[in-house]
Amino acid sequence: MEEKRALLKSLILFLFFFSLTIEMVAAESYCHAQRRVLVNACKRLIFRQSPTVDCCIRIRKTPMWCVCSIITPQLAALVNANDVSYIVGVVRRCGRPVARGTKCGSLTAP
User: How many angstroms separate the Cα of 50 from the Cα of each of 12, 59, 72?
Assistant: First the structure.
């Protein structure tokens, strides 16, 4: 009887961790797709051109956690304060509120 309980507990634990792993893989796949669509829609921002309507739609629809999850300290070191101000300004002009001091990965909004 104890062996069956131990086996059942092990099976439940396995299923729990397995479902978490599947959810994490699905979320990362979803975020990867969201980031790809965002980058494709907003390429002209690299040259500091005005965002297109499609770009603003993507900025409003793309989950922030998908974008902020890839902002590592190493990536943040490549971005200067003027770039952060520019990006935050574009995001705000596109209608997505960004509170002063908002953290996105290793970056902080001015």
Answer: 53, 13, 26
